Amino acid sequence: MYETENLNEKEDIMRRKTITFTSEKIEYIKERAIEFNKLLVFANYTGQVHAIAKALEDDGHIVFTLTGQTKDRAVTIQKAEESPKCVIVAQCTISAGYELPSFPCVVFASLNWQSLHHIQAKGRVLRANKLKKNLYIYLVVKDKGSVDRDCYNAIMSGANFNEKVFE
User: Cβ of 42: how many Cβ atoms within 10 Å?
Assistant: First the structure.
């Protein structure tokens, strides 16, 4: 589904209209946010990042988001790392170049199609300079033919999902 915006007579820009669906994933994430003082959530889609963040904020949690639109990621990450209790909701593609060793639990609400982003995401909390046990949770719609399930299976096998689709 697309919507167009007419900027002038010569140029039309097409962009996807965001469609959201109710999901049990958010309820599960809210439960984990109560269970863990610090929680890192990864989601592939910007709309999903914002929906999760809003639901958590509505429940009174301190929430930081990391997307391509985050202006100063280093400041956001430092504030979260210094906070005694918070949730970071990050877009999967923002998964490299920072450390969050004080976060013991990572929830993947959805996966990016590239295996490298998954490996990098897991590494944000798993740091050689601060070893600890970490919990990784994957929220996957198990229905046959589900993109969620197919993407999960591809990433867990070490392949990129888009490569598996065209095999």
Answer: 31
